[in-house]
Design a protein that fits this description.
heterotrimer; A mainly alpha (310); B alpha/beta (274); C alpha/beta (240); A: 310 residues; mainly alpha; two-stranded antiparallel sheet; 2 strands; globular; C: 240 residues; 6-stranded mixed sheet
């Protein structure tokens, strides 16, 4: 049971970083990125390729993954000048599928590596230093926890800067920020780079955790899961989206327990039902709590006397 | 001090498909004055604003600001050059507070670059503090300091206009373009806004170019005006002398548009148009 | 008895109250034009008559009946039709389909009959019956919008700035059409920016400013009246 919880919280940590990444892009900048899973995928594949095929150490793999995903994010943001919001959203979906289909059809370094076979045997860092899988589980959980903490404090700082404020401003339209001298396009590109990089980090962590990745792990459905976390938790609230990650992942992984208690539904059906439950949950949130469990907090500067202590 | 020309607009032209929206508009704004741009509906006033501020690019004509051509600059570059505009429909982000909107305004903040924000944290903090002070002062000017932590969504139309004005001042431009500053505003507030702009001009805070429909406001507020009709400047001068002109009245009544045609119709039977 | 009467109308949107006691009277088969500077409340008045906006005070009386409480679709049934200034045709539907939308509430055979009647009356539209509305010229679109409104065989037709965004040559054509429609026995109320041509084509006119009646008179007399200048350009000498 403990081992399961360690596993669960490691997964929650990884998806939590993904949720933070989408929160920067959508929660703060208003970018409807329907292809968000592409960062997760790029991160996973780039890290796996760097480590397995190029023999790089784990940290280089992770760094490479973060950079590659960040750059791809910037690339995705470039058409925003030309495309209206809805069309850009569709183009992000297309971008994610293009990358997935590319990896689906490309063998990497050998006839049975990559493509639909996926990449297996992704090395887990320092695995040999630990005797039991259980002990290693704790170690990797610690790695993810550190990465999550770092990500959380980073985005929290970032969105509190004038840069973060400019991002919030372009959320509702370019006109006023442009009239005040902000380069809206540059802001969007940077938001996509930051979000992309975080997504890539999550992807790399996942690849080395799961030791196996395949294109069907990164279907458009997975983007929906991240969106569910952000909407349920509260777009624009970093703690909120982490709460969303906990709830959705817990739900997603709960079937093995429910199966025991709900004997009349077989485990297969139960697994399918969880998507229905998530869907219903999101519908309910959008109808009754559109700002999520933890809505975006208001930034207060206080009255003159309070702030200056006069 | 000799009057200095701040903005020269010469012979602007802009076409949208089959419609010539701006057809030769020309005028000059002197530093320290309040200049008005008026004209009937569809005369191209807002298009001129969009052309001046880079939201649209002119087909031909020149726009010179402080002896430098700003034609072809993108909107944020025009803002950085020293021109700030407001919008007819207050477009301020409603999910942000009044103070956040104010803090958004200053140009070239160190904290707006990710790397700079990370390397120069102390400087960012100092700038924020200074901006906060200035924002409070300006909000005090428009008597909105008690609302500084309110979301813009809870402000009334008139309050949003005041916020746009304070925000424009906060950006510190030399020329402020006001697009219908009293449209949809409570009549009692209109006088306050007019008084405020007059006071700002008297204190030398900025030069103003104003598009306005309300003639009472135009007469009280503007030192000089230009009248646009069908995209062309048909008259310029003080409000008093300009609004007394016959051709200006006819422009508003649409009279002149049909004179030519009626004369032509008498000469030959009306044929197919297009 | 007048066909349409608006009494002591006060209306607006929340804090922005636009009309302050406006009155209007339209006799059968008249063409009445409402003019005034921007923000005077002309379009708002039409919206109140059509039921898009409920007045906070005042009444709208049609042929002696108080219709102030009726919804817009109920007023259509009372044979009032309205052509808005913008978005007044469905751009991706053809001419015939647009007309069919105008006859939405009518029984099918009746719709067919009326479509043909409209097309007979507007030969230019008949030539383009299968064309999508967005491919029509501005003047043709305006014609289509009016033809669509006529599908319900209205007694009273309300037009909001029919000349807006049209070249002067086309404006004349639109007003010729309006005169035509009036000859069919219909009463027409027009809100217009192009004062000259509107008053030339009307029987009577109303001048509104700041949500109030300034002047109403025979159309040909209004243009000569000094109060029109004041309404549009403000008084020559301001107090403060």
């Amino acid at each position: 049971m403990i081992d399961f919880l360690v596993y669960l919280f490691t997964i929650i940590g990884i998806w939590g970083i993904l949720a933070l990444s989408l929160n920067v892009q959508f929660g703060f900048t208003g970018l409807v990125n329907l292809g968000h899973i592409v960062f997760f995928m790029l991160g996973a594949y780039v890290s796996a390729i760097l480590v397995i095929l190029a023999g790089m150490p784990f940290l280089v793999g992770v760094l490479g993954a973060t950079v590659a995903a960040g750059l791809f994010g910037g690339l995705m943001a470039l058409p925003t000048a030309q495309l209206q919001q809805d069309y850009w959203a569709i183009s992000t979906l297309a971008a994610a599928e293009i990358v997935r289909i590319f990896f689906l059809n490309t063998t990497l370094g050998g006839p049975y590596i990559g493509a639909s076979f996926g990449i297996s045997g992704i090395p887990q860092p320092l695995r040999d230093a630990f005797a039991s899988p259980a002990a290693y589980g704790w170690f990797y959980f610690a790695i993810v926890a550190v990465a999550l903490a770092g990500s959380y404090f980073f985005v929290r700082w970032l969105t509190a800067t004038p840069f973060g404020r400019a991002l919030k401003a372009i959320r509702e339209g370019d006109e006023v920020p442009l009239a005040l001298g902000k380069d809206a396009r540059s802001l969007r590109v940077r938001a996509m780079i930051v979000g992309g990089a975080l997504g890539g980090l999550a992807g790399a962590l996942f690849a080395h955790f799961n030791a196996y990745i395949a294109p069907n792990y990164f279907l458009p459905l997975e983007t929906f899961i991240v969106w569910a976390m952000v909407i349920l938790g509260g777009a624009g609230n970093h703690k909120g989206v982490l709460v969303g990650a906990v709830v959705i992942e817990a739900l997603y992984n709960s079937t093995r327990f429910l199966a025991a208690h709900v004997g009349f539904i077989d485990p297969g059906t139960l697994a399918s039902l969880r998507m229905i439950v998530i869907g219903l949950l999101i519908t309910g949130v959008v109808m009754y709590m559109p700002r999520g469990l933890m809505p975006e907090p208001r930034r207060r500067y206080g009255a003159r006397n309070a702030a200056d202590g006069r | 001090m000799a009057p200095e020309t701040l903005l020269t607009v010469d012979s602007l032209h802009k076409r949208f498909g089959g419609v010539q929206a701006v057809a030769g508009a020309s005028f000059e704004v002197t530093r320290g004055e309040i200049y008005g741009l008026i004209g009937p509906n569809g005369s191209g006033k807002t298009t001129v604003f969009n052309l001046l501020t880079g939201f649209l690019s002119p087909d031909s004509g020149s726009i010179v600001f402080k002896d430098r051509s700003i034609r072809g600059l993108r909107p944020h570059e025009v803002a950085r050059a020293g021109i700030c505009r407001t919008f007819q429909a207050s477009l301020n982000p409603v999910e942000m507070t009044v103070m956040e909107n104010m803090l958004l305004a200053p140009q070239g903040q160190t904290g707006e670059g990710i790397l700079r924000a990370a390397w120069q944290r102390a400087r960012v903090r100092e700038e924020e503090k200074a901006n906060l002070e200035r924002a409070r002062e300006l909000l005090g000017l428009v008597r909105m300091e008690h609302m500084s932590d309110e979301l813009v969504r809870s402000l009334s139309g008139g309050q949003r206009k005041l916020l746009s004005l304070a925000q424009a001042l906060m950006a510190g431009p030399e020329l402020i373009l006001l697009d219908e500053p009293v449209a949809g505003v409570n009549p009692r507030l209109i006088d306050d806004i007019v008084d405020l702009v007059l006071r700002l001009r008297d204190e030398g805070r900025a030069t103003f170019l104003v598009v306005e429909h309300n003639m009472g406001v135009v007469r009280r507020l503007c030192d000089r005006i230009s009248v646009l009709d069908a995209g062309d400047t048909i008259a310029s001068g003080t409000p008093e002398e300009t609004l007394a002109r016959e051709d200006v009245l006819r422009a508003y009544l649409g009279a002149h548009r049909h004179e030519g045609r009626r004369r032509a119709a008498k000469a030959e039977p009306a044929g197919e148009e297009n | 008895m007048a066909l349409l009467e608006v009494e002591d109308c006060h209306a607006g949107y929340g804090e922005a109250q636009i009309l302050h006691g406006v009155e209007l009277r339209v006799e059968r088969q008249e063409i009445v034009t409402i003019i005034g500077p921007n923000g005077a409340g002309k379009s708002t008045l039409l919206k109140v008559v059509m039921g898009f906006l409920a007045p906070t005070r005042g009444r709208v009386v049609l042929d002696g009946r108080d219709i102030t409480g009726l919804r817009t679709d109920q007023r259509v049934a009372e044979r009032i039709a309205y052509v808005p200034q913008l978005d007044n045709v469905f751009p991706n539907l053809t001419v015939v389909e647009n007309l069919r939308m105008g006859g939405y509430a009518l029984p099918r055979p009746e719709v067919k009959r009326r479509i043909e009647a409209q097309l007979e009356h507007f030969p230019r539209l008949a030539e383009r019956r299968g064309q999508r509305a967005k491919t029509l010229s501005g003047g043709e679109r305006q014609m289509l919008a009016m033809a669509r409104a006529l599908m319900t065989d209205p007694e009273l037709l309300l037009l909001d700035e029919p000349s807006a965004a049209l070249a002067p040559a086309l404006v004349q054509q639109v007003f010729d059409t309006i005169a035509d429609i009036n000859r069919q026995g219909r009463t027409i109320v027009i809100v217009e920016q192009d004062v000259q041509i509107a008053l030339e084509s009307s029987d009577r006119g109303y001048v509104l400013a700041d949500g109030r009646n300034v002047l109403d008179d025979r159309a040909d007399r209004i243009l000569e009246d000094e109060t029109v200048r004041e309404a549009y350009l403000g008084a020559a000498v301001q107090g403060s």
